[in-house]
């Protein structure tokens, strides 16, 4: 019962704090102005994601007192998450060159991975493979990609929040259905609560945007939780990767196609699959709801089957990702000059 009270309290504080940040952003004129590359049509306050950051970081020491997380995991999540959030918050106020942001992202990822003990042995076709220092390098690269793809995918009302809520719910269920785990399910539920408080202000109508501080923070926290889960039950890592499938496939297909077309990958654009879909439907709402539905009714069952060791992790991932890859290609993710509909 204490855990649920904490979760509800976190959500309520995040809801109120987002409203306070909205007023702050309006007073300071921290507004996202619409342009030809935007998916919104009117000036909107930004930086609401800091409510998520402040609530999650503040409540994590309480979970340490309850022995929900280890000291190493606590400082991994708080240190790496806060570092990414701070550079994002500064960038929301005053532009920071991409190379400096990326440097801090790598530093935060290294901090997080080192404190967790690196990448644990990964299960693959019935065997476990310890990749040593190379596994640590893969983990750092994976985290940096999650930070940035989450920022890339935060482009229409509610999509980043709904993704975080549904993936966090799935992560909690992965822990709850595994007999080898304890109260670890509380950590993703804390993130779910904090994001839900923000989401009240962001969907279906966006009265404030998340901003780089919030999107980058969520990206690295979800990534670190997936690595942490693998130290507890190795198969859970693949479950988390499956849950993140919508964002990973859309962002990766878009990036690869833009690289092949020799486009500037850090230049703002509207060529993600979800952006084409929102223009096709003439609204953000159906696309955001579709992402949530895919996560809950397509990806979550595969993730649970993998977490319960009923199917191999890599096979489950390939089966779950197949239709997502097809959908991203059908929507022309990353295509330049694609006719808007």
Helices and strands in order:
Elements: H1 2-27, E1 31-32, E2 44-45, H2 49-65, H3 71-93, H4 98-116, E3 122-124, E4 127-129, H5 132-153, H6 159-176, H7 186-199, H8 211-232, H9 235-243, H10 245-260, H11 273-281, H12 285-307, H13 313-330
Antiparallel strand pairs: 1-2, 3-4
Describe this protein with a few key phrases.
4 strands; mainly alpha; 13 helices; two-stranded antiparallel sheet; 341 residues
Task: Explain what this protein looks like in three dimensions.
This protein is an all-alpha fold. The protein has one domain. Helix content is 69%, strand content 3%. The chain contains 13 helices and four strands. It has helices at 2-27, 49-65, 71-93, 98-116, 132-153, 159-176, 186-199, 211-232, 235-243, 245-260, 273-281, 285-307, 313-330; strands at residues 31-32, 44-45, 122-124, 127-129.
- Intertermini distance: 50 Å
Strand content: under 5%
Tell me which oligomeric state these chains represent: single chain
Order of helices and strands: HEEHHHEEHHHHHHHHH
Most strands sheet? 2 strands, antiparallel
Task: Provide a compact summary of the structure.
By secondary structure, this protein is an all-alpha fold. It is 69% helix and 3% strand.
């Amino acid at each position: 019962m204490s855990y649920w009270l904490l979760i509800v309290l976190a959500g309520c504080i995040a809801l109120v704090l987002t409203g306070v940040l909205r007023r702050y952003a309006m007073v300071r004129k921290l507004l996202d102005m619409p342009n030809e590359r935007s998916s919104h049509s009117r000036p909107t306050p930004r930086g609401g994601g800091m409510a998520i950051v402040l609530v999650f970081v503040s409540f994590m020491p309480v979970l340490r007192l309850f022995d929900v997380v280890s000291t190493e995991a606590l400082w991994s999540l708080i240190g790496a998450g806060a570092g990414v959030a701070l550079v994002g918050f500064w960038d929301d106020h005053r532009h920071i060159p991409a190379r400096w942001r990326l440097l801090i992202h790598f530093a935060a990822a290294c901090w997080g991975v080192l404190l967790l003990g690196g990448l644990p042995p990964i299960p693959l076709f019935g065997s476990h493979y310890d990749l040593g220092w190379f596994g640590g390098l893969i983990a750092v690269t994976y985290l940096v990609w999650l930070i940035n793809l989450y920022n890339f995918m935060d482009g229409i009302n509610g999509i980043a929040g709904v993704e975080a809520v549904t993936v966090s719910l799935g992560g909690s269920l992965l822990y709850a259905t595994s007999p080898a785990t304890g109260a670890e399910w509380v950590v993703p539920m804390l993130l779910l609560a904090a994001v839900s408080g923000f989401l009240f202000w962001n969907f279906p109508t966006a009265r404030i945007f998340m901003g780089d501080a919030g999107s980058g923070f969520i990206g690295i926290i979800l990534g670190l939780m997936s690595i942490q889960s693998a130290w507890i039950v190795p198969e859970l890592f693949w479950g988390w990767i499956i849950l993140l499938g919508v964002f990973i496939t859309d962002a990766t297909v878009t990036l690869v196609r833009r690289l092949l077309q020799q486009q500037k990958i850090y230049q703002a654009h509207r060529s993600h699959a979800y952006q084409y879909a929102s223009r096709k439907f003439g609204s953000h709402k159906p696309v955001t709801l579709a992402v949530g539905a895919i996560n809950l009714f397509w990806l979550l069952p595969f993730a649970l089957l993998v977490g319960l060791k009923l199917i191999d992790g890599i096979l489950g991932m390939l089966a779950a990702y197949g239709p997502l890859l097809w959908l991203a290609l059908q929507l022309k993710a990353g295509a330049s000059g694609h006719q808007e509909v």
